[in-house]
Amino acid sequence: MKRIQLIIGIIPAFFLTAGTAYCGDLKSPYSLESSATLPEGVRNPQVKGILTWVEGKYTSGGDVQPLGDPLSRSVSWGQVIATKSPVDQAKLRYLLQNNGVSESDLAGSINTEINSFASIIAPVFAYGVTPWWTTALAVPVYKIEIKSKTGFQKSQKGEKIVNLICNSGQDACNSAKAGFNDLKNKINTTIESMGYDPIDEEQELSAIGDVKLVNKIRLVHSKRNHFSVTNEITLPTGRVASPNKLVQPTTGDGQLDVGLIGSYDYDLQRDWVFNAHAGYTHQFADSLIKRIPSTSDSPLSSDTEWVRRDLGDQLKAGSAIAYTFRPLGLTLGAQYDYQYQLGTTYSGSQFHDSRYRMLESFEPAQSLHSATVQLKFSTIDWYRKKQFAVPLSAALSYGHPIYGKNVTDNDLYAADLIMFF
User: Fold this and answer.
1) Of these four, 43, 156, 234, 298, which has the most CB atoms within 10 Å of its CB?
2) pLDDT band at 387 (very low <50, low <70, confident <90, very high)
3) Is residue 222 part of a domain?
């Protein structure tokens, strides 16, 4: 028997880094596509659990960088001197000159490490309205943790100067080390002067995500060929981002989305099924408060405005193959997907048009190649033969990003428990 659970995507972006919101961020699928619908009158309660850890993201060039990199900064000796009293400034300048160190030389770097974890529990209820029409509702609930840590790494010359200072006396040594430690707070000092909230070392959020309404229509159902079309409506019920926080957990992007997915199954043999699918999602425009950058090299800004935003539409295509070990009730499948999202566009009236184009440059187009594997156990065939008391299925899935641009590189781990009555 073909799979009859409904595949419902429920993961939006859930964090912001350095003022750049990866809203509607593309993610690896965590389940396999199918054209199957529920039989008429069958109720299908499901519970989906998803875990993911996020530590890095793909750049526009396809390289992976840590999440905290946009907040990391190099520090020159001139910047170190600026934190000192006039007397200490003179002493430090004298020491630097005697050792051939310029104020423009690198003293070290402020490094920021950001790690996040999310667990999602999504109750889903699906119902077979007719043999060819299935409807469903998914309500994801998120628990998100984000940890941020800032440290100062001295350069080789920086280490040399600190050692010279420490050799001159303990008080001077303590003062130098305290000065470098103070530099760790430079990020918060800078962003607070621009009206941002300081970056919290630990943040937690438990909140509902974007609710999804799904209707699936089966158009073709022959001996070997099966085709269905799925309409997905995503309601903006999740927690959205604040313009005053650079790093924060969110569970939604604030926009209404409408998607259409076509899914084709071909029964290669009795136990082999091939699937091909493609879809398009339109993300409707909305309005929100955004920081409007004044330079092209940083999204940080003290200027805010209520702007019109249009997240780019999304396209996806993929294929899958699955084999069922009927005596054991097991199905093993693998799937490849390609996803693409257009860049975000903004419009406003308070500033020059070039500043909105700068804002757009920090939210460019995204692309993602990913692979998904799934192992599912089902008692449906046994139930039909009266060899098992209840019809149910359970599945374990793993989604892995292969290559991407401007998206996070996190793996997804999912578990499903599905019942029928």
Assistant:
1) 234
2) confident
3) yes
Q: What number of other Cβ atoms are within 10 A of residue 62's Cβ?
A: 11
Structure tokens at 336: 């490849």
CA distance 96 to 359: 40
pLDDT of 191 above 60: yes
Residue 155 lies in a domain: no
CATH number reported for the structural domain that contains residue 125 in this entry: 2.40.160.40
- CA 413 from chain centre, in angstroms, equals 14
DSSP state of 311: P
What range defines the domain where residue 329 resides? 16-67+116-148+204-419
Residue 289 in domain: yes
**268 three-state secondary structure:** coil
Tens of pLDDT, residue by residue over 149-175, are 887 787 777 777 777 777 777 776 776
Asked if residue 3 belongs to a domain, the reply is no
Provide long-range contacts, Cβ within 8 A and 24+ apart, for 348-354: 348/292, 348/305, 348/306, 348/307, 348/308, 349/305, 350/292, 350/303, 350/305, 351/292, 351/303, 351/305
The tally of domains found in the chain comes to: 1
Comparing C-alpha atoms, which of 350, 348, 366, 354 is closest to residue 283? 366
- pTM value? 0.86
Reading the block at residue 31, the tokens are 């389940």
Q: Rg of the chain's alpha carbons, rounded to an integer? A: 27
Given the DSSP bridges, would you call strands 64-66 and 73-76 parallel, antiparallel or unpaired?
unpaired
